[in-house]
Each structure stands twice: as structure tokens, then as C-alpha cells.
Specification:
alpha+beta; Aminopeptidase; globular; GNAT family N-acetyltransferase; Acyl_CoA_acyltransferase; GNAT_dom
């Protein structure tokens, strides 16, 4: 357990982390790199990367940024949406439990401060460590989207994971009538 781990809005001194994830393929690893990206610093300057449709937070352990946690709105109809979650940890921080703890923090935050009933995540089918991590924090693999994500010159299958509010706090059983 990382007792000092928190998620917080990005600060100017954290922007190097954004740059590294956007410009260095090794930072995201073999399952998430989809090419160079830009505009994150501009978006941070305009919105702090926080808004009604999602956000990005720094994952910080002992005052040191070690990753990014994100969420974005996924509309199901005009009145219902879910949050799609993402997590990028520095390579040296992976498989140490800090990503799991950050995801638990983000789950608790979104269920406490938004009306969404559903959280979801899309995970590359070949990314066994991420899939295992999703299941550790309570997500259920609900199916496979075949050929849904283009990465490294090929279309890849993606596992759809879901978590409902009631999965964390199930309703008590209804007493049997006698």
C-alpha cells in the first residue's frame, strides 16, 4: 500500500510527464502507443485538462508524479453516460500496486462526485497485466470488440470492462417471505 499516493490536477511542473507519454513510445508500452500526439499542453493551459466531459489527473506518490489517470464521457443516449477510464504509469512504477491504488481512488472519486452508474475501460486483448489489474479492482470483462483499435499497423481486439455502482456496494438481499 502506498500511503502517500494521491491523484490531483496536473501542475506546471508535471507537464514533462504529459510530454513523455505523448512523445516516447517506450513510456506507454507495446499496448497503448498509437503514435505521436500534441496539443496536451495547450489543452492544459486552457482547461487544466478537467471538464464536464472528462479529465486527466496526476498520480502522485510521496510528492512525485508517477503516472496519469483519466476519464472521458461515453454517451449511451441523450440522458445516460458512462465514464471510460484510463491509466498510464511510468514503466518503473508498473506492477508495484500504485496503479491499482490510483484506479481505486479514481473509481471512488467518480462514483462519489458524479451521477454515473457505470464505469468502463477498453483494454487491448493482448495486455494481460492490464486485464488482470482491471479484474483486481472489480471490473468485469463484458465482451470483446473485434478489430476495434488500430495500433502498430494492425487492427487489434479490445476487451470491454464494466463496473456498476452496485458492484461495489450490492443491495442487501431481500428477506424471504414466509
Amino acid at each position: 500500500m502506498h500511503e502517500d499516493l494521491i491523484c490531483r490536477p496536473l501542475r506546471e511542473e508535471d507537464l514533462h510527464l504529459l510530454d513523455r507519454f505523448a512523445q516516447d513510445p517506450a513510456m506507454l508500452g507495446p499496448y497503448a502507443w498509437t503514435g505521436f500526439s500534441s496539443g496536451l499542453r495547450r489543452r492544459w493551459a486552457e482547461t487544466d485538462l478537467l471538464g464536464d466531459d472528462g479529465g486527466v489527473l496526476a498520480v502522485v506518490d510521496q510528492d512525485k508524479p508517477i503516472g496519469l489517470a483519466s476519464w472521458r464521457r461515453m454517451a449511451y443516449n441523450t440522458t445516460s453516460h458512462a465514464w471510460n477510464l484510463g491509466l498510464c504509469m511510468l514503466p518503473q512504477e508498473r506492477r508495484k500496486g500504485s496503479g491499482e491504488q490510483a484506479f481505486r481512488w479514481l473509481i471512488d472519486y467518480l462514483f462519489a462526485h458524479t451521477q454515473a452508474n457505470r464505469l468502463e475501460a477498453h483494454v487491448d486483448a493482448e495486455n494481460v497485466p492490464a486485464r488482470t489489474g482491471m479484474e483486481k479492482v472489480g471490473f468485469v470483462c463484458e465482451g470483446m470488440a473485434r478489430g476495434a483499435a488500430f495500433r502498430n499497423g494492425a487492427w487489434r481486439d479490445v476487451c470491454l470492462y464494466g463496473l456498476l455502482r452496485e458492484d461495489l456496494h450490492p443491495a442487501p438481499p431481500t428477506p424471504a417471505r414466509v
